[in-house]
Write a structure and sequence with these properties.
Helix content: 10-25%
Structural class: alpha+beta
Order of helices and strands: HEEEHEHHEEHEEE
Distance between the termini: 96 Å
Strand order of the largest sheet: 3-2-1-4
Largest sheet: 4 strands, mixed
Number of helices: 5
């Protein structure tokens, strides 16, 4: 009887025999998808070349093509992308095809003058009057109006001290040329041309006179260190 019980126990551990009536599972060979060419490998374009579009495109040229002006007047452009730095265009020479601008584009010349050709804006009115001969409404009041404050913030989104990222709406509006509380007409006026946003810490730092600012009519600010002579320029952002 013990042997019979052991045999029955082993039978329980064995897998059930396959059902002869069950349908056989059909093995299906995997379907291999045909290779589809990546359209970015060798794209072509039917666009007509334009001299100053967002991306100058030459029909039939591959994407990795740099358009260069042999005369060095027009900036290099990467096919299908747009303007690139001349040094980067040179670096791409080993991996990209280089072709010349179409004659029509070269004949047209640059759309705008080079930045280096533009005259720099002069310093702001050194009197702090913003170019006004007669003080406009509110100019002789120390605190700017809500309208003037909004105008300053629209021009300057951040604190104008070097390397500061404080949003201008959290900043003080500082008079570049100090406001004269005794004789307001004699000092800097509360006008756009004499106001810049400075966070509270940088506002105090400016009054310590370690860094001396010069405001320009294009609203860039040149900060000069009185001890070292170092100059750092910040621009409206």
């Amino acid at each position: 009887p013990a042997d019979a019980e052991d045999a029955a126990a082993w039978d329980d551990l064995l897998p059930e025999p396959a059902d002869a009536d069950a349908p056989e599972v059909e093995l299906v060979e995997p379907v291999v998808e045909p290779d589809v060419a990546d359209p970015m490998d060798e794209p072509t374009c039917d666009e007509v070349p334009v001299a100053f579009g967002r991306a100058l495109v030459v029909p039939g040229a591959p994407v990795q093509t740099v358009l260069k002006d042999p005369d060095g007047i027009l900036v290099p452009r990467l096919q299908g992308y747009g303007p690139i730095d001349p040094s980067y265009a040179t670096a791409l020479a080993d991996v990209a095809k280089t072709i010349h601008y179409p004659e029509s584009a070269r004949a047209a010349g640059p759309l705008i003058p080079q930045i280096s050709d533009r005259p720099q804006a002069p310093p702001a009115d050194p009197t702090g009057h913003g170019g006004h001969t007669v003080p406009p409404p509110g100019a002789l009041t120390y605190a700017p109006s809500a309208t003037l404050r909004a105008e300053v913030l629209a021009n300057d989104a951040w604190c104008r001290f070097p390397f500061c990222g404080m949003p201008s709406h959290l900043c003080d509006l500082d008079h570049w040329r100090p406001f004269n509380h005794t004789d307001p007409e004699a000092g800097g006026w509360t006008v756009l041309g004499d106001l810049i946003p400075l966070c509270r810490a940088d506002h105090q730092r400016k009054h310590l006179a370690e860094w001396v600012p010069t405001l320009y009519t294009d609203r860039r600010v040149e900060w000069r260190n009185r001890r070292t002579g170092q100059i750092i320029v910040t621009h409206p952002r």
